[in-house]
Fold these 4 entries.
Entry 1:
Amino acid sequence: MHVFKSYSVLSIGGIAILLTGSVGAAAASGSDGGTITYTIKHIDDQKLANDYMLSRDQYKGLMIAKDPATPFDNAAHNCLGSLVVNPGRGPPLQINGVCDGVDKDGDVFWMWFHDEGNTHTWSFMGGTGKFDGLTGEGTTSQISAGPNQLVIGWEGSWKMK
């Protein structure tokens, strides 16, 4: 039973926070922002010591960049996140996860996210094709949340080989 639905949406806060900027021969780095809209599927809950609970969710989403010419615009995201909560005692203690993204050309990028308190951070972990050697980091914020849905805003910077 997923009793943390209102908190699980926060776990994407750090999730898919992909960076964009114009990419071309003269521009291998940039910074930008945009939105990602996710559908959330609860996976399971696991009881922990001291009345804590580990809750796991899958997030599938679509990234829209401010600059549609970037390679991340319209990239599909698939993320797994876990959060530790104490039911009835406020927001999650921590939220962590990993994501993969696939662009229109079929190239993949990987990233991790971490949310703790009011800090929502993420970082790229490389990729394939044009994303080979990809690095970058940034932050996210929740725009809206509903039953099994989350919209986040992201901003950050990146560098490609």
Note: Helices lie at 5-8.
Entry 2:
Amino acid sequence: MTRQAAGGWSAEAELAGQDVRCLAADGATVYAGTQAGGVHRSTDGGRTWGPCALHGAPVKSLAVTPGAVYAGTKEPRVFCSLDGGESWRSLARFSRARSWWWAQPAERPFRPSYVSGLAVTSEAIVAGIEACGVLRSTDGGRSWSGHRRRALRDCHELLVAGERVYEAGSGGLAVSSDRGRTWQRRSRGLERRYGWSVAVGDETVYLAAAPYRFAHCGNSRARIFRSGSNSGWEPCTDELPSLPRLRAVHGVRQGRFLAYLPSERRRYVSSTARVVRDSVLTALVRRRESSRARRG
């Protein structure tokens, strides 16, 4: 875990021995989805942990709303808890989408696929399935639509920001302005189309993306791109050795986010105007941006 303090950042190893695949937080309560250990929960901001659900299940995605926690698993199913993780129920299976034949290339065994992203809005639950589609439920998970037209079939991450839902996936970025009902792709001018992670600050969207053929190689050649509400895409980093996860930072400065490179154990801190270098990073950030930051 990494924490921000007055003197900077500190890192502490938690959940030793667990392959953590996703995190979600509700105040000081943090949930971690693991590859083989189900959901773990911390009620003290990540200092201590304990298993709470879905023991032995690969939990690939999590979402938290006021009063509910959602977990997406392999095989592709969504579970919901209304009591802070004490008890869980399965939502309806994805029968309409013929999930029995879903497969994915990301990990063995390649069948079945898994729920790679979850987004919960005021009127719908949106589930992204690795290499298979984006589905929507408007009745609390009692039934599911088929794949939403114009969403990206190969979903890697979903994000809710206001009334919009953002999807990073193969093809770049897709956006829904009506809580996942209809979608538009925002990939024109994006030079790398293997979208991996998305963050939103002010009116700026940030996307981590790589070339398809290098995305999961030793050097992914990934970059972080940004796009304003009325502008195209532009890169704001040099090539990165691995695909980063992007996360908005609330309550620090409007529009800031973190970009974490798991394989390198490095992070960026950014603003909506530019990406600036964190003290633990070397010259991965573009020199021009760094010089602008120093002049500012």
Note: The first strand starts at residue 2 and ends at 5.
Entry 3:
Amino acid sequence: MATKRRKQSERNWQAYFYNIRNSNGEIIQPVKQISLGTSDEKEAELRLQELRRIEANILFGAEIMVPWKSGGELARLNQPTVAKVYEKFKEHKVLYGSRPETMKHYNLTYNAFIAANGPKILMNKVDSSSIDKMIGYLKSERDLKNVTINARLRHLKAFLRWSYETGKMMRIIRIKMLPTPKGETKYIKTSDYVKIIKYLSDNYPDIVPCIRLYWERGFRASEPFFGELEGNVLRLGADQEKTGRQRIIHLNDEHSAIVRYMQATFYSGDDGNKDLNRRHKDVIYRAFKKACKHISVEGNLHSLRHSFGLRTCFREGLHTASKLMGHSNVLVTAIYADWDEDSLLTDFPELITEGAGSLNELLAGKKSNQNKSIDYLRKTG
């Protein structure tokens, strides 16, 4: 319990609070001293009793405002706003190496929370109703599906957990994920891939090599752009990878040429930085979506990664597929192993007879429609 003392060299009484801790029980400040602002012992005792009323918060590291300093009627907590705490949280995440893409998602979550609860909401006012307001906003105003809202909730959960552990809020807010149906992994089957390549060859020939790379190597959308290419080796730094670990990818000559082509064609490079601009999404991603829509197939660039995972798992086994895809755990890759073999062979007939069939015939026959991109690849190769 807090005590009061007055040293001979001091005019006013002081309140002493001991062992200020964080949520993990770690002492972050052995002694916290708060002036009681009076030399009268009886008045000092009354003020000490007022501080003891919020002693639990003080021991948790909260800042307070006292009436003998602020002119208020009661000693009260000086809680920061969510906006102020979030700025500290961003500094912490960047300091510990969070990727720009990760921070973008944190910012989207923060913006949604503020849009739903107002810019001046205090940390000590955040409760389950604040979470409900954000969910309602994302559903009604942003028209997001539950799976996307859950991603926002996970980022909010991380922010609130950090706020609690660093003493910015006094209690944990439990966040419950929304129910989501377990859907099948969306992939592009070979016959649809052939149609997509045909459409792109006729309408966006400079995009075809990029789509081939995603199909043949299973890259995540941004990896060809972020990686540092040295010969036939693509190096992805720990801060650029989803797993948070450095990754080295060995490519053949053709794939290396495509990566060079993509980096040279779809980087801005105007500011001298290797930051990925949005053009690869505006051009490659949207062109692929148009192709999918044209042939009445639901899919995106990541669907090509799923196709690669299914084919590789079938041909090379689970562990090889996990390594090639850069997964942190083979259990992540296991979704590609639990698949009906007959359906798989129907959707990917080249798994039965590698090197034959419409896929290779198309890619060979379409060279005349891809002169621009192929010529470029030869020059950069």
Note: The CA atoms of residues 134 and 228 lie 39 Å apart.
Entry 4:
Amino acid sequence: MALPWLPSRDRSEFAPHSEIAPGVPAGSYRNYVGDNGNCSSLDGPFAKYALRSGCPMANRTAFGYRHLALAALLLPSVGKAEPAPNNATVSVSVGPLRNGKGSLSCRLYTSGAGFPRNLAGTTTQRVKIAGGSARCVFENVAPGTYAVVVLHDENDNRQCDRNRLGIPLEGYGVSNNRTYALSAPNWQESKFSVEAGKDRALSISLRY
């Protein structure tokens, strides 16, 4: 059975010219196709039946048109996905920083399980420091409950340097600004809500 998107040649090679192109006298095939089979003219009554005649160029041309049409249908589906209408943007302003060294690491948490050491499901951004402050932006955030932890990574080693007692040697902060000298922040004090379609702007101070 012939596939519907491919030119069919199931019977044209054995059909008389008068059947292939009604009104075209028998033996006039060359007038439309040409002696070299290049289909140089397809303007006559034979044009409608060019594909059925097995005309090589016509087959290739029609096959190409069909591929172009298919590509045109697929193009909209491969474009950049639009953000969901209910999602929001969470912007985090951090400062003052004690110097302009290194970069600022911002981490968005989606769960209180093991907070803040458990990094599963988190989203991290690193931004350069401009002057005495820096800003991170999390886009396309779904409605829910979150927390943010920030770190002034002064030596850019992508980790929080600590002393022998485990106390951070670099500036850190958390959403709602509840930090402690001898203990880690907790989820209940650090969490905040993102409502559908409503952006959130946070301001975090660092503890050095």
Note: The chain has two domains: 12-78, 88-204.
